[in-house]
Amino acid sequence: MRLASKIFLGFSLVIVVLAAVGVLSLRAVGRLVSLNREVASETLPALRLTADVRDAMLALARLEARFTILRDSRYADVWRERADGVRADLARLRDLARTRDEARHLTDATAAFERYRDAVVAEQARLLVAGGRPAAVGEPAGRELAERVESSLESLQTATHARVFRAQAEVARLEERTWTGVVVALATAVALALVATAVIAVRITRSLRQLSAATGALATGSFREPIPAGGKDEVGVLAQSFNAMAARLRQLDEMKEEFFATLSHELRSPLTSVREASHLLADQVAGPLMPKQARLVEIIQRSSDRLLRLVNQILDISRLRAGLLPLQHLPVDLDRLVTRATEELRPQAEEAKVTLDRERVGHRFIISGDEDRLVQVVVNLLANAIRFTPAGGRVVARVVDAGDECEVQVEDTGLGIPAAELPHIFETYRQAHLGKGGTGLGLSIVRGLVQAHGGRVTVESHEGKGSRFSVLLPRQAPAA
């Protein structure tokens, strides 16, 4: 059976159980939402409105007492206005009453309030017609009816609270049932998932461990024996493909080493002979040269030097990519190394009318590395800086004590690097400025050599203002 089919069948059971849990959970959530909506949109407003009516009844009683004592028509007007508000609130409560007890108590309260209102209005009219103040103030006419309204409202409030308690109890029961169902279903799903994945995981991880170990051995160049490729699923096919790839890589490594040896001999040796022959001709060892012949010899000499440098750079790039470039890790004084590189390029800087300076910051500049290769790094950076700095500009080679690292900075006041080219300048055959010479390999070699020493190289540049390349090297050689 294919691995995809095994995984599908194993997890289909888990998906079915989880789908059932989802359906039950959604139904429970729907009921909970319904109960919460009822409490929020009906029960709580009913309780607030009932409390407001009870407070309004107390206010009506106070207004009634004041009118009875003072017989001021303004109190009667305010009382009737408040009474109309209570009547409207009682009407709104009819839409919020949901149980029989609530409806019955609300009906009693409404009826008692209407009788109370009629009695108070009649008493107010009689007192206003009689005029004057009585010698003694008696009990207000509507006191007993107001107390009956208050009693009915209290009963209504109690019935509404009972509805809230019933809703809370139902929510608690529903929550308990939901949690029980979800826990049981999830436990079942987990058990099924463990059983289904255990069988698949053992098969996959065993093969993947073998592949991982073989991949690590292949990366270090020590992989020799093929891994077992049992089974006909995707893992088995992957193991077979890995074995074929490893065999092909071994073959390519052997071809690559042979190619390097052949190319080094077949290209560098003839080019060196051509260059030395051109030097001998230029020195007139074979006899005097005519002016045109001397010019041709000069062209041959420059071309052979350039071609030999290009071949050396290509070989260096290829060896760096293949990890075959030999490096010696010996104590190196970076200050002395930078001095050597600047003195080597000083004639080129003077010819270009560029000031070449050297600076040092700190005192400790000893690292572990290959001096010749590090000189190549600094020379490449300085040569680029001189090439792209106009006459009258300045190039500085600076060595900096940076604690656990040493830093070499090459800073110039040249053309700078366009922002669009800055992320790509270390790529092979990539040039930021065309028509300025070079092969586009120098910076790629710089990065490869620095990384081979366990360091890193960075660049900061502003177009039209100059650039600064920074090479940071650890004091200790990287582990092999």
Which SSEs are present, and which pair or pack?
Elements: H1 3-70, H2 73-94, H3 100-130, H4 143-219, H5 234-282, H6 291-322, E1 330-333, H7 334-351, E2 355-361, E3 366-369, H8 371-387, E4 394-402, E5 405-412, H9 442-452, E6 456-462, E7 466-474
Parallel strand pairs: 2-4
Antiparallel strand pairs: 1-3, 4-5, 5-7, 6-7
Written account of the structure:
By secondary structure, the protein is an alpha+beta fold. Helices cover 68% and strands 10% of the residues. The strands form two sheets. Strands 2-4-5-7-6 form a five-stranded mixed β-sheet, with helices on one face. Strands 1-3 form a two-stranded antiparallel ribbon. α2 (73-94) runs antiparallel to α3 (100-130), α5 runs antiparallel to α6 (291-322) and α8 runs antiparallel to α9 (442-452). Residues 134-138 have low confidence and may be disordered.
Number of strands: 7
Q: In one word, what is the shape?
A: elongated
Cα-to-Cα separation, first versus last residue? 44 Å
CA-atom Rg in angstroms: 49 Å
Low-confidence blocks of residues: 134-138
Helix content: 55-70%
Tell me about the largest β-sheet: 5 strands, mixed
Largest sheet, order of strands side by side? 2-4-5-7-6
* Structural category: alpha+beta
Residues in β-strands, percent: 5-15%
Order of H and E elements: HHHHHHEHEEHEEHEE
Average pLDDT score? 79
Count of helical stretches: 9
Keywords:
single chain; 480 residues; alpha+beta; five-stranded mixed beta sheet; two-stranded antiparallel sheet; 7 strands; 10% strand; elongated
Summarize the structure.
Helix content is 68%, strand content 10%. The protein has 480 residues and is α+β, with helices and mostly antiparallel strands. It has a 5-stranded mixed sheet with strand order 2-4-5-7-6, with helices on one face. It has a two-stranded antiparallel ribbon with strand order 1-3.
